[in-house]
Amino acid sequence: MKYGEGIFNRTRDTRPLPPGQPIAANAPSLGPTPAHPAPRAAAPAPAASPEPAPRPEEAGGSKLIVGPNIKLKGVEIHDCDTLVVEGRVEATMVSRSIQIAEHGAFEGKVDVDIAEIRGTFNGEMTARKKLVIHASGRVGGKIRYGKMLVQEGGEMTGDIGALHESQVTLAKG
Predict the structure, then answer these.
(1) What is the model's pTM?
(2) DSSP bridge pairs for 109
């Protein structure tokens, strides 16, 4: 179980109270309980259903989400598999991937494998494997990338250049 998993989706405790235990005034009413509950039939074992394989972004790892209306300034972000920016971040980051939402903004230095930009990025970015700029994305500064995809409407300004295979290999080491 991951840290924090299940905090908000807890179920109600339906265990009967011991005899003589007072019931809280705000306790939910479960209705009348029969004096002799009927015996339950054994439930059939559920058929094993194949669960969908987790997406690569969700397959474990750490994820930091900077929500809307949040401003994170003057930090260094390390050991974070994925940074999701929905607010505003001014930082230096070394990570596996960054995702900037449509209304998100990042200013600073980023060194990642994959960058997916729907909002605004200004600064120095190295996307070793792939840089994706969506139609609403705006990227400016010194940008280096392994492969790049820019959707119609996406904008890039500044010092833009492709990484050579030797630079990608050296950056991984």
Answers:
(1) 0.63
(2) 92, 124
